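Can anyone check this?
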Amino acid sequence: KPSQLTITSESSDTVSLRGAIAPGDGARISSELRLSKPSVVTLDSVGGSVTDALEISRSLRSLGVETQIIDEAVCCSACPYIFVGGTTRVVAETGRLGVHQHSVGSSTILPAFLVTQEIQSGQAEVLEHLDGMGIDLRLMGPVLATPADEIYILTQPELEEWNVIST
């Protein structure tokens, strides 16, 4: 998978976003989405920058786009925050949506309390974002309980009950 998010036109109304979400991708991808005005965005990403994912998610919502995780695709880490921006959200049977704790790299320069403060501030922004997108905040249970170096794959009942997908 690419080291930064790539946007590819799949058809006249569908684009795919693939690869890691790098700092700066939020502004770049949002700008490209406003130009191409797709009605469907498919996702296949291992995640990356939470801040950039939230920016892309807000762009998708403002455009009224459907988000999809197609068969065999994964949307993990920060990617689900993009996914929830869809006004309609679909996960294919063999698609996977996974979450875990937030991390801020492995900084040995910053004191632990500043790293903790940054993570908690980021989580507050994520909670506000999920709530604004109509997602049940029970989703944060597995987010907070799963170590940053592991992934919790959401089950079909969780996707439905927590309003992560449209039913």
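Reply from J.R.: I decoded it. DSSP finds six helices and eight strands in the chain.
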